[in-house]
Each structure stands twice: as structure tokens, then as C-alpha cells.
Amino acid sequence: MPLPQPHDLTTLVLRTDFGDDAAWEALCAALDGADAYPCATPVSDPRFAGAGIQALLAEESAAGEDERICEVFLADATALAGPEHPLLAVDLFTEPGRTFRVPVRWYPEISANLSIANMDFAEYADAAGPSGTFRGFGDD
To answer: Cα separation of 108 and 122, whole Å?
Structure first.
């Protein structure tokens, strides 16, 4: 079964940790408040509970060509635990399995640029530097 499709000009935020509903709601509220325009398609589906990168890559590779998405942002235990809600960005297309973290503060910029193909996943992943967390260009 393919991953859920994000709404037009948004990216998919997929919940994989179901241990704290209040934390998920706080993350969704932070996403809603991070930008004037909707930039996320949040999905809370228990079938993705504990899903790892390899499982998501397998699901996506089984999808039809017109159902594939290029990246997904995971709301895993790490994202739900911290006040910055550092989502795990996962490349599903160019370098499948490549990841970096992105605090919600930076998510709207990344989502917008990826959804219109203004920038690509690798540019953000490269800018994440040794910490593995994107905090803007040249600020890590």
C-alpha cells in the first residue's frame, strides 16, 4: 500500500510514534502556527506505528509511479519529545533513505521549496552538517 498522498503544495508529516497524543497535537499546532499557509499534510494512522525507514522505502517502492512521493517527514519519538519537534526528513526518491532532522521552525521553508522543486532534498541534508539537524543555511 503506498504512503498517503500529501495535499497539493504540502509535504507529508507521518506519525510513527503513538505514545503521547498530547505531544502529537502540540506538534500539529506548531506546524499550523509555523507559517501563514498550510505546508503540512499530517497523517496519524496506526498502521505506521513504529515504522522504520526501510519499511517506508519498501511501501513507497511498491507504489505506482503516479502515487510515489519524493520525501516524508516523520513524527517519531524524538520529534514528539522535544520542544523544537525535530521531524525526521527522509528522502524517498533521489537518495532513498537519506535523512536529516528539521525543527518545526524551519519546516515551512523546506516544505515550500521541496513541493515546488525550487530546491532539492540533498541541499537541505548537506546544510544539516555534522549535527544532522537543519538550522538554516550557514547557521549550524
So the answer is: 17
